[in-house]
Amino acid sequence: MINQLRIYEVPPGNAGPFLERFRDHAARLMGTHGFRIQAMWTDKADGRMRFVYLLCWRDADEMQTRWAAFMADEEWAQIKKDTAARHGDFVLGIEDMVLTPTDFSAAIGDIA
Q1: CA pair distance 63, 55, nearest whole angstrom
Q2: DSSP label of 52
Q3: Among 32, 36, 24, 39, which residue's Cα sits nearest to residue 80?
Q4: Under CATH, which number does the domain 2-99 receive?
Q5: In whole angstroms, what separates CA 22 from the centre of its chain?
Q6: Domain map of the chain by residue range?
Q7: What is the pLDDT of residues 29-60, one digit of tens each?
């Protein structure tokens, strides 16, 4: 099992539309592509908002295959196009970390 931690920096003024798009569209479509979202958070500091979420994967092959399918999803492409036309940029940057448990980690175990 591996985890993937993603941190999105959201432009000032777009926090509401970003969170709505993720909640109403991205999370739903990710679910149809077999994503397992473990948790989601926001971090608001220094006048900026970051959206953080943690994914769980069986292995790197599953992660790559499911990301490719999601990114190729025509509905997702249209949603991004439509929301960008209304609100401008949604993401200033993405930090993406693939977290592999150590052999002494409590995180080791099977995933459902």
Answers
A1: 9
A2: E
A3: 24
A4: 3.30.70.100
A5: 8
A6: 2-99
A7: 999 999 999 999 999 998 889 999 999 999 99
